[in-house]
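Blackboard transcription, Thursday session:
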Amino acid sequence: MEFHKILVSVTGTEIDDEALRLACRLAKKNKAKIWAVYVIAVKRSLPLEAEIESEIKKAESVLDRAQSVAEEENYEVETDVLQAREAGPAIVDEAAERGVDLILMGISYKRRFGQFSLGTVAPYVITNAPCRVILYHEGAT
Amino acid sequence: MESSWHPKPGDKVFRPPHIKGYRLRRVLGVPALFSAGYGDVGSSIYYGLGIVALVALGATPIVLAIAGIIYIFNALTYAEGSAMIPEAGGSASFARHGFNDAVGFIAGWALMLSYVATMAISAYTIPPYLSHFWPILREPVIGTAVSMGIILFLMLINVIGIKESSAVNIFFIGMDIATQLTLVVLGIILILLPHPGALFQHMFGPGNWPPMQNLVFGVALAALCFTGVETVSQLAEETRQPAKKVPQAYVMMIVAVLVLFAGISIVALSAMTPQVLGDPVNGWARDPVAGIAASVSAAISPEKIATGITSKAELVIVLTWVLSWVRDILPALVAILAATILLTATNAGLMGISRLAFNLSSHRQLPATLSRIHHRFRTPYIAIILFCLVSLLVLTPGFFTTTFFADLGALYVFGSLLCFALAHAAVLGLRVKNPELLRPFKLGWNIRFKERELPITTILGLIATTAIWIVVVVTQPYSREVGIGWMAAGLLIYSIYRWHAHLPLTHLPKKPGEPIL
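(Written on the board underneath:)
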């Protein structure tokens, strides 16, 4: 499998580092371009353009961390912040617009009502993505 | 590495200090816009018909038609304005860009009044529809208490920020349109066509035609049935290709609303007298569509209709069973749908007011307190709580009387007509002041005035909304006192805030390089 453009969705969880390292290793073969995106989800009681300071600061620190991880892997990553109502459609739209070959997402181990849960974003992306999707799971603890 | 991203028309790009790119993701298309807008306007017939009939009596279909024409003017003006200025502020944004911050505030504050009134009316109308299952909800005290409970519940879920499902909304909108169409078709077949004289008698018979003052006020109140233009405008900022999709959504709304409302009002006045339709105590003023459903059900004679369709015994039995089921289920279905749509409308009003408050606050037209975000829930909790409390206050007279809801309608009319008039004026003002601005949806039918093109529909909309607003203010004491009091309080808050922040009343100082729009 060859990848020339990779989109990595980062959310500020521990799994982001591993997902980015995987992306860098996959990208090295063909010198692919990597974008790390953080999506700020805005509640419907706010305008979409609302600037939420706390979220912006969190996005900054998550993307700073993403760039550090990429540097450790001797690779360059372009970071971007998106603001949308929901993360899933934002990621899929971004992937389609940039024409990426691969969406890579880290999945934390979550349980809902006693069962492992992928959440809402990953299933949406898998269902609607215009390209390959890799879900990187940290494993049950 | 070179960036391959390019902004599209309507994209908004922010550049906070450390982040390279920060972009809005627009996801809404025409179906989502239509369902949001229709959810607003489609709910208003569930109370608007009764309020209008209370005042306009037999002239109800005619005042609805006149208000429908004004609605078309409003929708067209908003289509141009929203395509040109796809922001969350709606008419407040148009007025701010067209004139100045003070006029933008007046439009926004008037819009807030209409949102508060819409929330109160929508919540107030839910118990009468649910009284199909629990008759005690018709009692003023219990009904008002339930309405207040509904607002408090919505306040809580909006402070927490529970996601609503757009798929569920679209489902209920579809069911609502289907049910209303069914009522219209069945009403025409079973009530109007067998007794065509009844409609004429109920409209023009002795005691059924209103005096001129009521006729004009009826046109104003009929504006209550044609909401939704602001809702779509406020969603423009998250719509894909807003220049194209927003006008399309407006056109779809105009067609759907006019066809359904014309049909519903004609069927209503075929089925019952305007006095029964407009009676808030013993009639159907607070749940007019339930009255239509009851009349249509009563007109269904399953066996008679079945034998009229076919002579085959087995088919008659099946058809009789099906028609009996339709007759029995129709009132219950309308009750459930009405309650659901009205709950959605109340919630939409609350979200609209919180977004608008945030928008005004972020443009320094209201104190920053109103745009404070909850650290955990990430919602504008102060704005949500404050305006819910205002809605509860507005509902308080409901404990003592059932006729006050016509006053609620009058309050809505005061706010909405003022903000529609300012929206028309702002679009005209931008045609004069900034004719070179990109107008992705430019209204046709223009007249030329000093080398400027001015759309006729906007001019007529401005004249109509301003004239009716003036008539309402002059003739309706409740509208005048509470409405003007609200506006005065708002202007006082605005003036004090701007003075305290050392800001001019009309314009914020522009930052170097900041574009006009």
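Lecturer's comment: The interface with chain B takes residues 33, 39, 42-52, 54-56, 59-60, 63-64, 76, 78-86, 89-90, 93-94, 97-99 of chain A (CB under 8 Å).
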